[in-house]
Structures are given as structure tokens and as C-alpha cells.
């Protein structure tokens, strides 16, 4: 587990190696997009990315995840605030 500012973290050693990535940080659109790009870099084939805060009160998160869904299959786990992506093997 790494709790850090993702703008300063070296992701190179972790590319395509994480079975589970949880994205739950800043809720601004650009922050969600940045953290999501990093999540897609490190998730292993067959791994899972989970985002929190998919809820109308977090409109910027919702907008970013809706944008990401245009390129990646995302699943909203109703009635929760979670969204999941299963990386292809």
C-alpha cells in the first residue's frame, strides 16, 4: 500500500503489476482523470480498479468516470458509490 501524492510517485516499477487499485482521493475532475490514468498503468492483466465517490454530490468524480467509460468498461455497483473496472487478461 502506498499513500502519497500521486503527482510525485514513481510508477515505473509498478506498471501492470497491481491486482487491485483503489482510486479514492481528490474529487476534482482533473484529479480523478490523473489518478485514473495512473491506475490503468499499474493494474495487472485480470486485475481490478475500484473508484469511490460515484454519487451526484461528487459531480466532478461522476463526470470524470463517465468520460473514462467512453474508452473503458466500467460497472457501477448499485446502490453503492463504487465503480469497478476489470482489466482484460
Describe it for me?
This protein has helices at 29-42, 59-68, and strands at 18-23, 43-51, 75-77, 82-86. The chain starts with 17 loop residues before the first strand and ends with a strand. It is an alpha+beta fold and 89 residues long. The chain is globular. It has one domain: Translation Initiation Factor IF3 (2-Layer Sandwich). A hairpin with a 4-residue loop joins strand 3 and strand 4 (82-86). The protein has a four-stranded mixed β-sheet with strand order 1-2-4-3, with helices on one face. It has two helices and four strands, in the order E-H-E-H-E-E.
Name a few traits of the molecule.
globular; 27% helix; Translation Initiation Factor IF3; 89 residues; single chain; alpha+beta; 4-stranded mixed β-sheet
Topology:
Elements: E1 18-23, H1 29-42, E2 43-51, H2 59-68, E3 75-77, E4 82-86
CATH class: Alpha Beta
N-to-C series of helices and strands: EHEHEE
Number of domains: 1
Low-confidence stretches: none
Give the overall shape, derived from the CA principal axes. globular
Structural class: alpha+beta
Cα-to-Cα separation, first versus last residue: 23 Å
- What percentage of residues falls in helices of 4 or more residues? 25-40%
The CATH topology assignment is: Translation Initiation Factor IF3
Placed side by side, the strands forming the largest sheet appear as: 1-2-4-3
Q: Could you tell me the strand content as a percent range? A: 25-35%
State the total count of DSSP E strands: 4
Helix segment tally: 2
CATH architecture: 2-Layer Sandwich
Q: Main sheet?
A: 4 strands, mixed
C-alpha Rg (nearest Å): 12 Å
Rounded mean pLDDT score:
94
Amino acid at each position: 500500500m502506498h499513500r502519497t501524492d500521486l503527482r510525485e510517485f514513481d510508477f515505473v516499477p509498478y506498471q501492470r503489476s497491481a491486482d487491485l487499485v483503489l482510486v479514492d482521493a481528490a474529487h476534482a475532475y482533473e484529479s480523478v482523470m490523473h489518478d485514473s490514468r495512473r491506475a490503468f498503468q499499474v493494474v495487472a492483466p485480470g486485475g481490478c480498479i475500484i473508484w469511490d465517490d460515484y454519487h451526484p454530490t461528487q459531480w466532478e468524480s461522476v463526470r470524470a468516470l463517465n468520460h473514462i467509460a467512453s474508452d473503458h468498461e466500467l460497472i457501477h455497483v448499485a446502490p453503492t458509490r463504487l465503480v469497478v473496472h476489470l482489466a482484460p487478461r
